[in-house]
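ESCALATION

Customer reports they have been waiting on this structure for their group meeting. Please prioritize. Original submission:
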Amino acid sequence: MSDVLNQIVASESELVNLLGTYNTSFVGYVYGMSFDEALVLTNDDWKHSVNGIPHNSFLVAAGFNPERLADAAEIDKEVVLLRVLEPVTLPQDNDLIKTRIEHHQRRTIEEQFPGDVNDGLDPITAAELQSGGLRCRILGTFYLENDELRLGSDIENFMTLSRMRAYKPTEAALSLIVNHVNPEVRRKALEEATNAGFLQAPSPINIGTIRYTSTARMHRGTAPLVAVFIQPTDFLARRTAVLGMTRTGKSNTVKTTVSAVAVAALKDNIRIGQLIFDVNGEYANANHQDDGSSIAEVFPTQTIRYRALETVGFEDIRPNFYIECAQALNLIQALFKNDNSPFSGQDLDAFMSTSLDEPDITERADHIRWQRHKSVFQCILFRAAYPVPTGLIIDIPIAEALLVQIRNWAQVQQPVVNINIPANARVTPSEACAWFEQLRLINISLKEQQHRNNTPQIGLVSSTRGSSWVDPTLESLLNMLARENSRGQSFGGWRAIQKYRPYHSQRRRADITNEIIAHLDNGRIVILDLSVGPVEIREVLSKRIASRIFDRQMADMHAGRVPQNIVLYVEEAHNLIGKKADLTDTWPRIAKEGAKARIAFVYATQEPSSVHPNILANTENWFVTHLNNDDELRTLGKFYDFSDFIASLKAAQDVGFARIKTLSSPFVIPTQINRFTPDDIRRQIEEINSRSGNVQSQEVPNAI
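Update from on-call: job pushed to the front of the queue and completed.
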């Protein structure tokens, strides 16, 4: 084939483009190869010409002449991607080391400092002494299929007598390598994006730039930085781990991800709800690391913040105990369990082990009993001086069958007792307390009377023949209200829960979980600032919110509906999905099964070894910064090709220096994560709004 035609083919081939400026990027010869590793012969002169070959840097190897690609055998038309692991000895190294030592031993005092480029050696000897070997991991093979560039994650063949030359890719070639996505992956991403509501595959996110080592003098100081892009669809309905020590860039990575997902949704006018469980207050509040801004300030109309403390700009995450009774009782029980309380008693024990979860309304008898328990609980709160919401009305039982029993009891008393029967079943808290206390006394009196008559001690009779209207749970609740057990002995009763009043908010008018789910359905960013207020709220409320979200998403899926896109971000995740966690519990189920119900789960932790192994094994995306513990590093080394980075992860403590593995990429990419820059994000939002004609900056769309 003519030289002209060869040049045309080479200039148009993506395979040749992978070699970069091959005339100046040559670094050596492949002299040994297996299916997993390649050995490269290089020397100091070639390394000097490419500004060095850093640890974990990428090399490419090809067995064709880049200027005569058209003449190459079909088997050679491929490019093998390598990662530099470590130096390797050559067979003649012992002789070369001996020569170097002898040369240094012959030096005079005048030669203690380096001289010319050969440092006193003759050119031929200097050329021999600067040779060395590199051991490289084989990451895959680039080849053309139907005129499309593909990357296989292994190699198909290797030659014992290799004709391959190695090159160091830079700039455009390196960008092509690290940002490559196979055609079928792009098509799948487009399909998933369309299903998620996007009009087209969202634009890749510029997450950072290539960085090989902590020392970045040459490969980042003199060469142009090469951007690393990730696909937004990699995060939707996927699991993402953000691992690393404190102050090494975990929160910055999460902020960048939150912003990128929000901007991608804004571009296509769709709704993606994002919920951040902010344990340390890093996302709800501005700090010096983020140019004085927070997520809430970058997306002011799209972000809703909650805090367990009355604060300007925050909704109150504390439940209204009178409205959210089940949650309130769970929280009281958790608080009491952690206290060294002086209060005790059988009825108090029963109170601390009961539940106020609402049964199905179709279970009429159970639902009626639940309503009585709930109403007495509200009365206990009132007696314990929990602030009452304005206009609170409590439902009380005044069924005719009950009133008949009460009137009959009153008539046989000597003297006859007058009973104050409420006019309707919805009364004020003080009226409800008086009514239930009266019912309690009547029930006790009837039991005493039945005891004297040698009849079953049922007290007030329920509609079920032979059953007591005051069931054991209701009896304990009534005794808590009266601060007296059924034998007339006093005990702490409602005084045992008075100290928990700061955990209650009378401001709230609706169930916090329903409110948060509504915000997520509208595509908002919800931040739960758990850094202030009671720790118990963090545990009890977080789990309840997560459980409700999971149940709702799964119900939609099972009903044949398309679930809402939701992303959950969790800090200190090892406390929620630890290795001993029951996989049927809420958080492990979200991490394990949530993806099929369109719940993306992003978890951050310093302790990957403490995370449940089943969750780690099913994680698609990984962002790993500095880890200083061998146990954690060993755990990480079990996944993908992170074992190549163990030493680097332990040594390099640079903030934001991460090793990234995403769903779309078959190998780990060492990356310096971009800093969370609010001004840049605001500019992107303004551009989107100007193109769409949306004058209300950052407004959340109401519909897809």
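Sent to customer with the following note: The first strand starts at residue 26 and ends at 33.
Escalation resolved.
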